Amino acid sequence: SVMLAIGYLVWVPQVPDLAAQTARANTAGAAIYWTGWFGGVHTPGYSVLVPPLMHVFSVSAVGAVATVVSAVLFPGLLKGALRPTLAAIAFTLLLVTNLLAGRITFAVGVALALAGLRLLAAGRAWWAALPAVLSGLASPVAALFLGVVAAVLVLFAPGWRRKAFGLGVAATVPVLAVAILFPDPGRMLFTRDALKPSLFASLGLIPSLYGRKARLARWGAVASLILVLAAYLVTSPIGSNAERFALLWGLPILLAYSPLPAIAVVLVAFPLVWWAERNIGPELRRSRDASASR
Q1: Rg of the chain (C-alpha set)
Q2: N or C: which terminal CB in the chain sees fewer CB atoms within 10 Å?
Q3: Other CB atoms closer than 10 Å to residue 271's CB: what's the count?
Q4: Closest among 142, 104, 109 to 9, alpha carbons compared
């Protein structure tokens, strides 16, 4: 992950999302309400923590560090995994595709969410609340995904119920507080074409994750399915961002916990790999567009 992050810092493709991150970094601390984004937005509604970090340390550096941190933290969550090394490699590569797409704010939120889960798994529930809160202040989308994971633990892991509930609350409260204090009327589109890959990915994962060891992973796939359907049916600022849950976690979880034979895992994984390429390929091809210019 370190070498891939260094390679990114050398290259730094100028994709449209990176230009948007750069604009937010440049306006960090200048105003609570920014008129340079369409009809104007409250800047904290997008992220409280990350724009100032990007302003101080540079957009690309913050994204690279967050990616490495996530790649280091993830393997520690693969308890009882059948193929932990493959899962960790897949997750790292998907993190890099997120970095290449310029989703720096989300990358920071994911790193903090993973830190919260690692602390929870280590039995340090009170300490886990801190990165969970910071995740909500960094990226509402990442905090939403952390809340989904916490909900799965509350519902289907009785031994973790109280601790996971606290983690979910810690991730949710800052998002709700910021949304109330700095309302954002914007809505994110989620077209039928965008829905299909995440829908099919979730539907393919559910039957592939059978057996006792894969029980929580299976319910996570069900939660992913519910999330994308809700995001599609209910217009909100989340919109198509909901698909990132299955996009980022689907392939690693399949490799880690599916008891299917290797050839069957490859067949199920192929659409997920294609989806990842479909997600990043167009972004890289647009890197020379005027919309990506900084």
Answers
A1: 18
A2: C
A3: 16
A4: 104
